[in-house]
Amino acid sequence: MPGKIILTGDRPTGRLHIGHYVGSLRNRVAIQNAGGYEKMFVFIADAQALTDNFDNPEKVRQNIIEVALDYLSVGLDPDKVTLFIQSQIPQLTELTFYYMNLVTVARLQRNPTVKTEIALRGFNAEGEEQAFGSGLPVGFFCYPISQAADITAFKATDVPVGEDQKPMIEQTVEIVRAFNRIYGETLVEPKAVLPSNAACLRLPGTDGKAKMSKSLGNCIYLAESADEMHKKVMSMYTDPQHINVSDPGHIEGNTVFTYLDAFCRDEHFGLYWPEYANLDELKAHYQRGGLGDVKCKKFLEKILNEELEPIRARRKEYEKDIPAVYDILKKGSEVAEAAAQATLDDVKKAMQIDYFNDRALIEEQARRFTSI
């Protein structure tokens, strides 16, 4: 068995935001810096992004560099981590094809991510109900299988993800177990690595109504300026019943306090708000009344700027030499392709379809026909 191998990635459908950061990116950097692993792969999942952006490839193409810049700016180090582009690894497509035989249509339909998409696409452009899943591209329908290929191709043992990706890891485990049962022990079973801070599992959007999402326009992007972020923080959803400063406030469902749970540390109070020793004291004051939302938002803004300013600075440096960023991705893709080919060789040998490498088979067939 190999040592610990880390694999994770993101779809290039837009710039990455602080939901990605607390949900996975920050954890990836911590894992990278802590060491204790054999290899670490981080990839840009452009092929998967094309499954539901097939009519807009330019969007995916342009966002490749945005995601790469976000990776580098948060602190992922290409000397320690292999950064690559999914579509440049053809072995992943072949593995996906073989794994399709290990998953039933019914099982894919039960996958929460696929179920959601089927529900969303249950009506055609005229608003008429369609047959179950008929509006779903086959590529997206097979997304969980493709993700299993990504994970197993690099023999990943640990996959840092957000909570919403747990069903995908569970399906990968099922595929690994099915393959190993049928063909013998070949693939490595992965496990999901989730953020330890519960607030980071599903960071809500600034509107407080849903998960942070590019399409809903409720994101704070890693790349945006302090001025842009100021506007978003000041317009954040809080407690609609907290009309007057003297009113008792509610922290449940209050976006500002959810963000503070995700980003705030005790030392921030000494730096920015010494009236309180920790977040619990601040929450208690807000709940009993006498504390305004604007003060809480200004405190949050200072914390976010402390976290994001080094990221902004690193990004500006990498933006000065974009060809060098593409070179990092090219070199990483070459390393990743070699690793994926080694796994594909193991898979084809286990499935007994490595015909030209199987000298015993060739010699057996030769004896068979010469004896006729």
Give a verbal description of the structure.
- The protein is mostly helical.
- It has 2 domains: 5-203 and 322-363, HUPs (Rossmann fold); 226-317, Tyrosyl-Transfer RNA Synthetase (Orthogonal Bundle), CATH 1.10.240.10.
- The protein contains 16 helices and 5 strands.
- The strands form 2 sheets. The protein has a 3-stranded parallel sheet. Strands 4-5 form a two-stranded parallel ribbon.
- Residues 123-129 have low confidence and may be disordered.
Features:
Rossmann fold, 372 residues, mainly alpha, 2 domains, Tyrosyl-Transfer RNA Synthetase, two-stranded parallel sheet
In short:
With 372 residues, this protein is mainly alpha-helical. The chain has helices at residues 18-34, 46-49, 57-74, 91-99, 105-110, 112-120, 138-141, 143-153, 166-183, 226-234, 255-263, 266-272, 279-288, 293-319, 322-350, 359-370, and strands at 5-10, 39-44, 82-85, 158-160, 191-193.
